[in-house]
TrEMBL record:
Name of the protein in its database record: DUF1960-domain-containing protein
Chain residue ranges for the region called Disordered: 94-113
UniProt cross-references to Pfam families, sorted A to Z: SBDS_N (PF01172)
Highest taxon above the source species: Eukaryota
InterPro entries: Ribosome_mat_SBDS_N_sf, Sdo1/SBDS-like, SDO1/SBDS_N
Biological source species: Aspergillus saccharolyticus JOP 1030-1
Span of domain Ribosome maturation protein SDO1/SBDS N-terminal: 9-99
Gene3D superfamilies in alphabetical order: Ribosome maturation protein SBDS, N-terminal domain
PANTHER family xrefs: RESTRICTION OF TELOMERE CAPPING PROTEIN 3, RIBOSOME MATURATION PROTEIN SBDS
Length: 113
């Protein structure tokens, strides 16, 4: 049974000390939010998590951003304010994820293919 098929939409922010990534719903909703700030952030972002890639670009390993890295880059450790700055100044990127085939019943033992 194929799983994990879909588009991953994210905003990439190249900072002075680190690179930051947040996941968003779509480019359309980000553009609407940039013009109309009355749209709630919960409709724009796909989870209120900020990730850091340790200067490895948008494709690097995603770790949770620490409060000190947010403070160093954005001047605040308030995650909502950092999300807003990333949405305002970041670049949108979308990737298509490949489908994966996983075992459906682990009690039957390993699948032989």
């Amino acid at each position: 049974m194929p799983r994990a098929v879909g588009e991953n939409s994210k905003m990439f922010y190249k900072g002075a000390s680190d690179d930051f990534v947040i996941f968003v719903d779509s480019n359309d909703i980000v553009n609407k939010w940039r013009k109309d700030r009355s749209i709630p952030l919960s409709d724009v972002v796909d989870g209120f998590k900020i990730f850091v890639t340790h200067k490895h670009g948008a494709q690097g390993v995603l770790d949770n951003a620490s409060k000190s890295s947010l403070q160093n880059e954005f001047g605040t450790d308030n995650e909502d304010e950092c999300l807003i700055k990333i949405l305002e100044n970041g670049e949108f990127q979308a990737t298509q994820s490949r489908e994966r085939q996983d075992d459906t019943n682990f009690r039957n033992g390993p699948a032989l293919r």
